[in-house]
Every structure is written in structure tokens, then in C-alpha cells.
Amino acid sequence: MESNLIKKKNTPKLQVMVHRKNRYYGGLLLVLLTCLSFAQFFQVNASLDLRRLSEGEKQLFDTFAEDMENYFLNTSFASEASDLDLVVEIKLVIESVNQGGSQTTVNGQAIFTNQLDQYFYAKGIQFPYSKGRKMYFTPSFDPLASFFDYYAFLFIGTELDTYEYMGGTPFYNRSIELADQGKDSDWSVGWEDRWKKSRKLKKNEYLRSMRYNYFLAQSAINAEEVDIKTVKSAMMNFYEELSTLDEKLGSNKETLLFLKAYHVEIAELLAALKIEGCLELLALYDHDHKKVYESFFKN
Known about the structure:
Structural class: alpha+beta
Mean pLDDT: 88
Oligomer: single chain
Number of helices: 13
Helix content: 40-55%
Strand order of the largest sheet: 1-2-3-4
Number of domains: 2
Low-confidence stretches: 6-37
Distance between the termini: 12 Å
Order of helices and strands: HHHEHHEEEHHHHHHHH
């Protein structure tokens, strides 16, 4: 079974990791020659829902979706974490536009996702806006740019957790710090919830360890010389962390989202390594994919 596993198709994430070495070198070279910094996001698809606005109000946002995309694509959120090639989709729902004196205030909600294991729902968004306003990355709190920075840091932190054990901690910390600033600002709507969310994600070290160990195992499998010892050790650690998470946190939304994205590959690994106890636990924990896990430990 182990030898068959080695031949299995790479996971979506691993396909991206391999693919990034060879793709679009001509275009990337041009970007590197013209930019002083390296951005973390490779592809961003942003869309706006303006159905609640009047025709006049809609005109305020003619370039906003493009501006969001450009902000993520062209900003170096951290020089020490370049070349991550993150892909994200953003849907921003503008609920209302209020005019007070010379200032226009926008209220809304948003969804950020990588279409795999990361999904963030942002409610209670509020920021000042004027038509064509550009965003700039700055250490000072800005109600609009800092909102996007917050989610950029969460994506980066989660990604770095897959490369190094707890490697994303500095970026979870930066999202927490931003939320702290937001809570104390004149634009505090929604920032209390974001502060709680980022702290919750950082403190869930069981899931963070599960994520790291799963991708460590996959990397060992896809190495030129397969390191089965590392694969088995990583997946045993995965099993231990899942058991502890189940005991201490119970059903956890972020963990279930991670399992939804990778449950088939995880089940294949566990079956190949004959770690049946973890398959049985997953069948109880991740009930939506119970039949998948059972199909492996029944064989």
C-alpha cells in the first residue's frame, strides 16, 4: 500500500507548490525587475455586491474591485514571507452608503476564501471612502487598508504553519495587533469580533500542528527518496493532536473546514500507514465524510 501511495496524485496544495517552480517565469521576471518588494498573493478575484445601493451610489465603486485585487497583488505584507503564491477570493457586500458633511461612510460585510481550507466571514465592516480612493500599506491604522491587511495576515499565517511548526505565529500576532488598534480607533465597528477570531485561530495549536504534520507527511512522500519514517511519525503526531483537539475543543469549525478540503488524501495516508485508530476517530469527528473514512478502514 505504501508503494502505491507514492504514486498517488499530489494534493491541490502540493500541485501548486510544484507548479510554482515552473510557471510564468517571463511575466514574473518582468514583475521582479519593476518592483522593489515581493508580494505574497499570486491570484486575487474580488467582486462587489451593490444590489442594495442606488444607481448614483453604485458609481462610487466603479474601480473598487480592481483596487482590492491590486492591493493584495502588489503589496509586500512581509518581506520575510515572499513567494507564497497565495490565491484568494473576496466578495464584498456594500449594505449602505451614508453621507455626513464632507465624509462618506460605507457599511458592509465580506467573505474571504482560498476555496480550500480557509473561509473568513467579516461582518460589521465600516470605513470612510471616496470614489477612486487608493489603498496604501502603512504601519498606521487605516480603517480600509488595515481591514484587508488583517485578513492578509491570517492567510499568510495559516500558510506558513504548513512550512514550519507554528511558523505563522508572527502573522497571527500582527492580525491581533491590528484588531487591537481597530478596537481603539474611531472606526471600531467589527474589530472586537476580529480580535477574538485571530486570537482563537492562534490559540488552536492542535489544528495548527495537524496542518503542519499533514503537509510534512506529504512533502516526505513526494521527495525524490520517500522518507516513510517521517511520513508515519508526522501522521502519528496528526492523530495525537486530533485526539487532544477532540477532547479539549470538541467540534471545531476551522478543523472541519480543513478536513473537508483534504479528507480523502488524509484517509489514504492513514490507511496506507495502517493507523486505523485515527480513521475511526475521524469517522466520528468529521461526520459529513464518515463514509469516506469507513471505506478505508473496512478494507
